User: What shape does this take?
Amino acid sequence: QVQLQESGPGLVKPSQTLSLTCTVSGGSITTSYYAWSWIRQPPGKGLEWMGVIDYDGRTFYSPSLESRTSISRDTSRNQFSLQLSSVTPEDTAVYYCNVKSTNYWGQGTQVTVSS
Assistant: This one.
């Protein structure tokens, strides 16, 4: 049973960089053909896919966020991370990590962008 847990600051100031980490247990992020996503849900809105890193370390991003988004991984810790730069209050959301195309999701972490 794969389990995912998001971690990171719950409050970020405008113009700063939001950094979150997803720790994976019960499976390896290098397992062939699996991909690991970041998804967010702003208050009162639907889910927004942000990007993914696959088992080989290749990354793909939402075109609307690509210029501000970076996803990386630490295979020794079985973690993958999200960085979102130049944040504004519109980036306030619950951020989730998940295994792409599965029902394996983290519980989500609230991030608020505010001064």
Remarks:
- The chain has a mean pLDDT of 97.
